[in-house]
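Q: Protein A?
A:
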Amino acid sequence: MPAKIIDGKKIADSILGKLKDKIKNSRQKPGLAIVLVGSNPASEIYVNSKEKSFEDVGGYCERHDLNEGISEIDLLNLLNSLNNNPKIHGILVQLPLPKQIDENLVTNSISPHKDVDGFTSVNLGHLFSENTILAPATARAVLHLIESTDIKIEGKNAVVVGRSNIVGKPVAMMLLEKNATVTICHSKTKNLVEHTKKADILVAAAGKPKLIKKEMVKEGAVVIDVGINRVDGRIIGDVDFENVKEVAGFITPVPGGVGPMTIAMLMENTLKAMELENKIKS
């Protein structure tokens, strides 16, 4: 029996609808600043989508399109001004950044309470100490999609393929908090199939098109595909979707799975950041 498709867009639209109602009844609008450096076509698509979604829910969005040749100090000065801008509750710097700029330095120059991507060392540290302030939006999206299946996470074997600070490690930590037994696989893992075949929950976040094949997936598994790969003008995931859906119990498509949910989680994080700021002030 083919897998049930997890419709990330439908779930995200429901969340965004609730956020819109909440913002409409709020005395204050959450403010989001999006910073885009250069003209990477993929980044422009993501930024346009985030900007539109935030404006659709009634938030205030401020976009900063910067020249690819901008100096690191000028970018840091902009982020410092946004950190101190009371209208801005969330700051999002679209990655990747040009070579002359240290991504780690830039990420950690964002105030942790405005870090709606959840990428700063402070927020990742809070996540790993089980004292989450703002969790990485993509990791939150993955957990939300798994939970939408009504599969009980506790006690399940979960395998995460990919170990980035943005997705792999945070997803593994959040699954661990839900009492799953978690294995992290990566480019140096030997016999990957031995691990993936045991997974009740399989999260593919390696950035390699169609890495996960049908024979690597346990029958009835929940398969979440975080991959976004451009191949021959098409966007495809890390999972061989057409074949894997024949054995999986649940599977996310690409596009239409994790992507829309990540945007919804970013919007939620921005609203949460505004609420956190108000608590600090009161």
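Q: Protein B?
A:
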Amino acid sequence: MKIVLCDASPLIFLAKLDALDLISEIFCGEVVILKCVAEEVCSKSAGDVERIRLHRLLETAAVIAFEESDYPSRSLSENDRRVLKWAIQNRPDRLVADERLLRRIAREDGIATIGTFGILVAAAKKGIRSREVVRKMVDDLVGKHGCRVSVALYQRVISELEK
């Protein structure tokens, strides 16, 4: 069975879009979320609707207590270091993360990564969501939900959706 390890920001953004189901639909595997990440995404700063959606996901995901964070990068948050350490030790089939440094280090270690926008593009390409719906989701992430994205990445995502 495939293992998909999720970091916080994709979970938060997909919850805002009511699209957490895309993770399991695209990867057809076990969704793993570290307990520290689950606590982060379900904190009081999460909106009520998003928190309900996240709790629903957590009921079906494997939530794992993992406290090791001795990865030697102080540029990453404590939780990102834990996610990276777990990924290196357990070799998931995919790491779902938006943090560029986390993804770069994971890829250098041979771990396949994908971010929120990659999941949305994959949903369109697999026909799980229409390209028009995904385009609206992308625009909502940037315009309504405060997702920061470079112009180059935004243009690449839109270009992929228009293919």
